[in-house]
Structure prediction request, 237 residues.
Amino acid sequence: MRFLFILLVVLLVSCGEKEYVNEPPVEKELGASAVPSKKSFSVDFESCDPAKEARNWETFPDEAVLVEDLVRSGNCALELTGKLTHNNKDPEGTNVYVAYSVFVPAAYDGGILGSWEPAPREAYVERGGETAPVITAVLAGERIQFLYMQQEIVSVPFAREEWHDLVFHIKWSSTPKGFVQVWVDGESVVQATGKNMYLFEGNAVLNEFSLHQGVVVDDIRMSGSYEEATLQTFAQR
Prediction:
């Protein structure tokens, strides 16, 4: 009897422990399989030259400021004066990791830090022409909110005037087999499943990644591998 009691206690404690903290996610836990993205994207702004950095993006802010006195690593980071966008063109069924670092100034008014939304805009026909991001990170006060298909999943503390490291793990799907996982500073904060692609004329619409003005960003990486996405970004910090 004493042995059974001890075993029960051990099982209860282990069930309460957090999974995935500082570890690659176990995809089978979400009941889905996916094909890793074959497209890697890596930007660390080390050229310190706006003209050169602009070539990496579909949209690059006018009068973008590359700063040298406020960096996550290396020589330069980007102070966003407008919207920064990149479309990795990962098709439905793709498994991708996106990692980046962000610094929020004390004077930041709050709003969207990062998002994925359909491109081209014709995809919005599903919502009567409304803009409808599928994944959104929003800063409100000293907290960051994560929304999945416009539904808030979680809100966690997010201090200003310091660097934070974000990692997103996404499987793109126009069916309930899609999912997103998010880590903030190495801690798992989001696990959500469900559709995350819109259909237009019967085809799944690719989602475009955006970072928004008012913050400083550095070390942006996209990859089909957790290790590659976080390589030299967070692993040695």
In short: Confidence is low (pLDDT under 50) at residues 2-32.
